[in-house]
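User: quick one, sequence for these C-alpha cells?
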C-alpha cells in the first residue's frame, strides 16, 4: 500500500506558508505567514485543525514579515518548535540591524529573530525523521563574496522537498540575481532539473522570474502564493504557463474533493485559495483546491 505525503500551500494573501504532513504523522512548515482578511493562522490550524503541539521542523525561507507574521503564534498556541532550518547568513546581530533599518519590528519578526539568535539544536536530520521525505537547502551568503548580497530576498533559502520521486521547490523571495548565483552551484542545477512542483519565487513577482532557471527546470505545475492583482509586477501567470512541462497541464480537483476536475498549469492562492497536494510513495500526485471564505462569498 502506498504511503502518502500532504503538502498544503496556504492562502495567506501576499505571504508564504506551506505545511508538510509526513506519512509518519510528523509535521514541517515552510514559513508562517497568515491571512489578515480571513483570520486564518497556521499556528491555530496546527493546534486546533491538526491537533498537534509539536512542530517538528520550521523552515524559514526569508526573514521578511509576510513570511513570518505568525511566528509569535506558536508560543501563544502552546506549540513547541522542535527544529529550525534557515540561512545562517547573515549572523544574528547583522540580520537584526537590517530589519530594524527597514522599519518597526512586529511580534512575528521579533519571534523569528529570537529563533535565529538562540536556536542551536537539538537537530534530528529531516531525512531520517520524516517517514521517507527528504529535504535539501541552498543559500547565498551575505556580502562576503561576489555577488555581494545585502538584502534578504536574495539570501532566501531555496528548499527542495522530495517524496516518492516527486520534488517540490520553495525558493522564498529569490530575485534574478539570487537565482543566477545559486545556478553557479552544479548541485543546485542538477537537483532543479527534477522539480515537478515549483512555488513561484517572490509571490510570482516579475523580479523573481529568471529565464535562465527554466533552461534546466521544467516543472509540471507552478503555484503562486499572493494576494489580488494590484500591480503589473504580479502579471506573470502567462510567463509561468510557458515554462511548465506539459501544455495540457495537470488534473486539479477544484473547490473541494467533490468539485469539478480541470487541467491547470498555474495555480494561485488569490484565485484558488488553499491548495493541497497528496503525493504517494509510488510517484503520483493529486491536487485539490479549497477556496477561502472570502472567495466563496465572491463566487
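Assistant:
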Amino acid at each position: 500500500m502506498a504511503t502518502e505525503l500532504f503538502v498544503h500551500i496556504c492562502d495567506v494573501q501576499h505571504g508564504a506558508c506551506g505545511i508538510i504532513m509526513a506519512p509518519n504523522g510528523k509535521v514541517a512548515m515552510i514559513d508562517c505567514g497568515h491571512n489578515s482578511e480571513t483570520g486564518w493562522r497556521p499556528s491555530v490550524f496546527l493546534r486546533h485543525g491538526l491537533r498537534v503541539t509539536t512542530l517538528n521542523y520550521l523552515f524559514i525561507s526569508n526573514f521578511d514579515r509576510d513570511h513570518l507574521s505568525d511566528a509569535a503564534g506558536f508560543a501563544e498556541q502552546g506549540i513547541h518548535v522542535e527544529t529550525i532550518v534557515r540561512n545562517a547568513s547573515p549572523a544574528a546581530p547583522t540580520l537584526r540591524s537590517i530589519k530594524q533599518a527597514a522599519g518597526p519590528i512586529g511580534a512575528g519578526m521579533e519571534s523569528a529573530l529570537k529563533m535565529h539568535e538562540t536556536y542551536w539544536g537539538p537537530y534530528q536530520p529531516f531525512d531520517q525523521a520524516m517517514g521517507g521525505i527528504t529535504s535539501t537547502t541552498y543559500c547565498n551568503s551575505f556580502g562576503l563574496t561576489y555577488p555581494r548580497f545585502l538584502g534578504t530576498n536574495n539570501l532566501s533559502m531555496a528548499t527542495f522537498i522530495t517524496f516518492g520521486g516527486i520534488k517540490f521547490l520553495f525558493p522564498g523571495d529569490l530575485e534574478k540575481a539570487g537565482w543566477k548565483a545559486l545556478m553557479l552551484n552544479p548541485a543546485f542545477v542538477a537537483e532543479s532539473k527534477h522539480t515537478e512542483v515549483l512555488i513561484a519565487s517572490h509571490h510570482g513577482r516579475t523580479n523573481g522570474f529568471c529565464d535562465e532557471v527554466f533552461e534546466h527546470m521544467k516543472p509540471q505545475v507552478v503555484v503562486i502564493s499572493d494576494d489580488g492583482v494590484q500591480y503589473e509586477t504580479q502579471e506573470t501567470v502567462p510567463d509561468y504557463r510557458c515554462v511548465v512541462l506539459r501544455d495540457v497541464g495537470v488534473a486539479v480537483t477544484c473547490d473541494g474533493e467533490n468539485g469539478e476536475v480541470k487541467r491547470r498549469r498555474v495555480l494561485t492562492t488569490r484565485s484558488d485559495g488553499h491548495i493541497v497536494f497528496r503525493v504517494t510513495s509510488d510517484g503520483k500526485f493529486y491536487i485539490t483546491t479549497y477556496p477561502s471564505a472570502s472567495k466563496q462569498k465572491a463566487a
